[in-house]
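Subject: Protein entry, chain in single-letter code together with its fold tokens

Area: Proteins and the way their chains fold up in space.

Attached in line: The record itself begins immediately under this heading.
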Amino acid sequence: MQIAQLDEKSKQGIGEFLELPFRIYADCSQWVPPLAMNARRWFDRKRNPFYRHSEAAFFLARSNSGRPLGRLAVL
């Protein structure tokens, strides 16, 4: 397994980060997914007011075959 920081300019990387919970919790009836529009705002450093006073880094854990297994947001 490897853990790598997400390139926030990579549409593919952001897509994998945002879609991972949908795959993990697909069979969990209690899970309420976030609105896609709101989730994508985390990556917009110009529009998201959070970044006026804070920083963030996003990471994906991948299997040896490259499949996303987990994600982490460090705020």
Notes: Helices lie at 11-24, 36-40. The two ends are 23 Å apart (CA to CA).
